[in-house]
Amino acid sequence: MSSFVRCYQLNSSDYQHLFSSQLIYLFSLFNEYDYTVRLVGGAVRDILLGVTPHDIDLATNATTNEMLKLIQGDSNIELVYTRAEHFGTLTLIVGTTVRKTFQVTTLKRSITRHGKDVAVEFTDDWSIDAKQRDLSINSLSMDEHGIVYDYLNGMDDLKMNRIRFNGNISKRLQENPIRILRYFRFFGRLSTDPHAHDPDVLEGIQQCGITLQDVPGEKIWIELKLILRGRFAGHIMRTILEQRLGPILGLPESLVEMFELENRWLRSMNYQPEPMTLLVTLFNDQEEFDTFCKRAKCSSRHKNLGQFLLDYRYSLQPMRDHDLLYSYKEFLINSHQNQQDIRHQYVIELLKYQGYIYLIDEIKQWSIPTFPIDAWDLQQNGLMSSRSFSYFLRHLKEQWKSSHFQMTKEELIQYGFQSGLFYT
User: Fold this and answer.
1) Which Gene Ontology terms of cellular component type are present (predicted)?
2) Angle between helix 233-242 and 217-228 (nearest 10)
3) Same structural domain for residues 5 and 143?
């Protein structure tokens, strides 16, 4: 089957540094048996954007069985069994001393989904495989000589910062519902206008949004994190919620909080707020937060941050004296020593959430001081009393805090004697 294709030759400096000895070995192996293999998807897109890809995914006209025969008995390649073999994808670890992992997928003709059941039909035609991919910018492929194959004008779309689905939008989304969130992620990464969504795309998303209910929570959270860390995060989250996707994602529906999230991102975006710092805006109570955590299956790190923000977003506020951060500092000092470092990071996120941006640099640079005195110091100064040392240390710590953590050990001991504390 013939199909129109545009080919572009890249400069070797644009791609050769990505061709490790392991990747070259893989290409040589496929070529030796007359199979074609190319870099596909995000790897090609990133190369064209001048970004080093995190992962290198490959596609081939070889079937799964042909690939298995190809690597059988090859001591330089280890096959990692996953559940993706059924969908034509093999995970291969290549190399002996230095090892690299690649996913190699047979070209696809179509993907048909019925609820959670997925059927894949394969092909050996690169143009057909390109057309069944979600976006034109993800349909590009590149061979080992740096020739980029463009069947769907993906290069033009990339240059124009345009996010365009291949073919029928609803069909593409139904094939793999996570593409709904992937669209928003790529829009945030590439678009120059946060509001320039194609109305047809948003209509398709509204029609297919319910299919996200079959997507595992872990995949939902991965995409939401990337969206919330990207450009236009506030605007894009507002658009997502306007498409009534919130309940499907485990998020509450509220117009007020939706606008507040956008405003919170605008205030803090230069300080790169954590995804959960922004999302907590949407939660009015513990139940709503728990509902999201259950749906998204977010990690304990993100859940703990969210719980902290939920607990302290109103109760911990700047003091109206010469040290606006005193209440935050006191909170950290009163925390258990093994929790102080992580809570220091939480407090920074809390200031972003609260909008006290002008205080962030100060709290970042502030090192949590150590209370300079202990029971041994009291004994060394001849203190003998019927009271426990914890009584004296508790009162001395309050005095130390009232000095804004400036009093030294000697000054505290002097205070204990002069104030009569040690004689009580």
Assistant:
1) mitochondrion
2) 140
3) yes
